[in-house]
Amino acid sequence: MRRTKHYRLAAAVLLAAAMSLTACSAGSSGGSEAKSAGKTSLTVALTGPPTNLDFTRTAGAAIPQALMSNVYEGLVKIDQDGRIQPSLAESWTLSDDRKTYTFKLHPGVTFSNGEAFTADDVKFSLERVKTGWVSSLKTKMDVVDSIDVLSDSEVEVKLSRPSNAWLFDMGTPVGAMFDPSGVQDLANKPVGTGPFTVESWKPGEAIAMTARDKYWGQAPKVKTLTLRYFADATATTNALRSGDVDVVYNMQAPELLPTFESDKSFQILDGTSNGKVELTMNNKVAPFNDVRVRRAVMYAIDRKAVLDTAWSGHGTLVGAPVPPTDPYYEDLNGVYPHDPGKAKALLKEAGAENLKITFTVPTRPYATAVSQIVVSELADVGIDATIETAEFPAVWLDKVFTKHDYQMSVILAVESRDLLTAFNNPNYYIGYDNSKIKDLAQTADAADEAGYVEGMKKVVRTITDDAAVDVLFLFPNLIVAKADVTGLPKNSVTEALDLTAAGWK
Amino acid sequence: MVVRLAVNVVRFIVTFFVATVAVFALMRAIPGDPAQISLGVNASPELLAQTRREFGTDRPLIAQYFDWVSGLPQGHFGVSFVTRRDISDMIADRVQVSLILVILSMIVALLIAVPFGTLAAVRHRRTSGILISGISQLGVAIPGFLAGIMLVVVFAVGLGWLPANGWTPPGQDFGDFASRIVLPVVALASVQGAILTRYVRSAVLEVMSEDYLRTARAKGLGKLEALVRHGLRNASIPVLTVTSIQLAALIIGAVVVERVFVIPGLGSMLLDAVGNRDMLSVQSVVMVLVAITLIINLIVDTLYTVLDPRIRKQA
Where is the chain membrane-spanning (chain B) (predicted)? Predict the structure, then answer.
């Protein structure tokens, strides 16, 4: 009798376990699908998943990274060298007063819901930025005065003043083209003109895309594209080694690279990105409201040493918040060479010897990596920095970004061409006094192309002269992939991760 | 029996609602604004206000609380303003994953702990018993994630026998599911097995010193036979208690192992939701965990009465 009871209990436990096993059908992270599909599919590992799929209402680089170029397209697109190229617009003309753009649209373009793409959609999409977007990016369309549909394939955009930046922005998420009947549930079901559609999305895990049959342009090389999201860099490279993923994009742990460098079955691409690792100083509060103290920091920090120590030497030293893919880039590394003696002299002149500061470090790998060496270099010139960590994004955004309650911080600024957003705005958390660059920036934006480049260079030099921020280095766009994967975009020029040309040898 | 059950049910309801207040208050007490996180850098005050209105986080706390709580009895958690998905659906996906992982791990842990713990107790003065004790002590000291990382380095990256990470639902491809679950289960079960081994050992040791066992020996039964026939059932009560506590703790405590093995479980969902200050999702996941814990307790409480007639009589 007693024995049967034991058996009964054991049987119940086994049954419960079996039931919980068979009852499950959801929750895949897509590993097996990728494996069985062979060479017509590509699986890319990324870190930092999007919270939803609607970049018109949620900030951050993760959503446009996945969807721009692959699912959404604009009238123009930005190529690997930062140049503006035709996309949904075959061609365009600019009026003599540089205020009216007339775009001629590519014929035969459809959205993934079957609707045709016409000039009405351009008007709808651009106006929606102003009315429907809940995003700080919408200010990029403030300069648009009116949009006139000339015919199904021609549209005219009038700007309130000439703007060089606007056409570039049209190749970024604010320029994405939407269909009026396809915007009901953008957070879950994106509808665009691009070569892929989103087949499934599992928050925090994976986005699976399939190639469209009726794509207007060059068909993509693979039929299915899976973006898988990982919590940390080690998990991504482990997945690459065990064959679950084909590509690790924007790899976040350069110290893991050497094991791949020596292995013939993998390739490494070391490109540039827009990610500027910025040592920010609150320009409005002591001690960094004194330009001499900020300059002292610039001289105190050996950026080459920071790059070598924190990021294994991968990345680019730029000396200013401008990546080489921007037209107004110039090498400004020479402005503040590493010179602790000069730093000390400046601090003495400013009466800021034996300085004690708080260094607010967000909880991100790059930030932790640079913070220790920055602290030790500051100590060498007599600045005693105490590290205080801030959970990223929640606490950092609240404390540093919104309340400006910090002295020094470090952040990876990833937006493309964000120079003016950050420095031509005295209410920005860096608190740079923009009175010297405001007019320069306005004139440059309205000038012709050569004038734009010259004018913006002046802006950059002024910001650098004022030591508004110490750009430690430009984040590398590190890609580790199986050796026979082709067509990967080496540089990250805009937010988009364009995988439309990616395929296999 | 009926009274005991009724008391348990009332306790269940009260605990559950105290927990709703606690988790709601806690999520409001930590710094971080979901609207700010959603808008990211460069957000203007107007946009922030608009987003807070849309999220409903600008309304009075009491109203927010009652809106949320009133949906709970029907299992309506609402739609997350961060992911814009139905929270019930997301939790349903994730809870299956967590339950499979945790229940399998606990079964394996018990399969290790019961025989080895008993052996360690029976031979507690001999080398083999001391050896088991020592190994289990070591197992308790090793965190699950470390065990996980070591397993990945050796078996996935080094030898290439098993996938390094990822998850496939058993209903979709059982073979792939099985190959992916081995390492995480081993990582969790080795640590849990070590913990349980120590509890089994001490429970059996205690039973062995009881009078009734001496009587059984005096009747002519061997040490092991006496233990199996008269002792194990008594020793199973404290072990059951510990197992149930560990089971509940592991559903969320497995999060670190989930991260190492990229398993989309409830723990990872909770961690992401806290990071994004996705209040509704955090509250909902915590309430599901509270419910699971309370249900486990209810079941264990009932099992006590099955295992031990004395508890049955008391009630």
Answer: 12-30, 99-122, 134-161, 181-200, 239-262, 282-307
Out of A24, A204, A428, closest to residue B100 by CB: A24
CATH for A323: 3.10.105.10
Q: How far is B297 from chain A (nearest CA, A)?
A: 16
Chain A contact set for B42 (CB, 8 A): 59, 136-137, 421, 428
Tell me, what's the pLDDT at B299? Answer: 86
| Rg from Cα positions in chain B | 24
Asked if residue A371 lies in contact with residue A361, where contact means CB atoms within 8 angstroms, the answer is yes
Do residues A353 and A458 both lie within one domain? Answer: yes
Beta-carbon contacts below 8 Å between A and B: 184
Instruction: Answer whether B259 sits within 8 Å of A29, measured CB to CB.
Output: no
Nearest Cβ partner of B44 from A29, A136, A397?
A136
| Residues of chain B numbered 220-249 and touching chain A (CB < 8 Å) | none
Asked whether residue A235 is domain-assigned, the answer is: yes
A9 in a structural domain: no
The 3-class SS string of A124-178 reads HHHHHHHHCCCCHHHHHHCCEEEEEEEECCEEEEEECCCCHHHHHHCCCHHHECC
Q: Nearest CA to A101 among A83, A115, A116, A86?
A: A86
Same domain, residue pair A243 and A281: no
Phi–psi pair at A392, nearest 5 degrees: -110, 135
Please indicate, yes or no, whether residues A410 and A283 belong to a single structural domain of this protein: yes
Domain stop point among A119, A149, A182: A182
What CA–CA distances, in Å, run from B27 to A254, A397, B37, B67? 36, 17, 15, 16
**pLDDT of B308 above 50:** yes
Q: Which residues of B244-275 are buried (b: 16+ CB within 10 A; e: fewer)?
A: bebbbebbbbbbbbbbbbbbbbbbbbbbbbbb
Chain B residues with beta carbon closer than 8 angstroms to that of A421: 42
Question: Do A156 and A279 belong to one domain?
Answer: no
Q: Which helix (H) or strand (E) holds A300?
A: helix A291-300
Domain presence at residue A94:
yes
Task: Indicate whether A224 and A303 sit together in one domain.
Answer: no
A54 touches chain B (CB under 8 A): yes
Looking at the complex, does the CB of residue A238 fall below 8 Å from at least one CB of chain B?
Answer: yes
From A182, A202, A237, the end of a domain falls on A182
Report CB contact under 8 Å: B96, A203.
Answer: no
pTM of the full structure: 0.85
Give the domain extent around A463. Answer: 274-474
Tens digit of each residue's pLDDT (9 = 90 or more) over B191-225:
899 999 989 988 888 888 888 888 888 888 777 77
pLDDT band at B1 (very low <50, low <70, confident <90, very high): low
Average pLDDT over chain A reads: 90
* Distance between CA atoms of residues B88 and B105, nearest Å: 25
Between positions 283 and 312 of B, the ones with CB within 8 A of A are: 306
- On whether any CB of chain B is under 8 Å from the CB of A263, the answer is no
| Tens digit of each residue's pLDDT (9 = 90 or more) over A207-255 | 999 999 999 999 999 999 999 999 888 899 999 988 899 999 999 889 9
Q: How high is the pLDDT of residue B119? A: 87
Q: Which tokens belong to B32? A: 């971080």
Residues A266 and A279 occupy one common structural domain: no
Of chain B residues 135-194, which have a CB less than 8 A from chain A?
Answer: 149, 152, 156-157, 160, 162-173, 176, 180
Spatial contact of B119 and B128, defined as CB atoms under 8 Å apart: yes
pLDDT of residue A305: 96
What is the CATH code for B94-275?
Answer: 1.10.3720.10
Q: Tell me, yes or no, whether A101 and A155 share the same domain.
A: yes
Domain residue spans in chain B?
A: 32-71, 94-275
**Which ipTM was obtained for this model?**
0.81
User: Number of folded domains in chain A?
Assistant: 3
Same domain for A260 and A378? no
Which residues in chain A land under pLDDT 50? Answer: 1-38
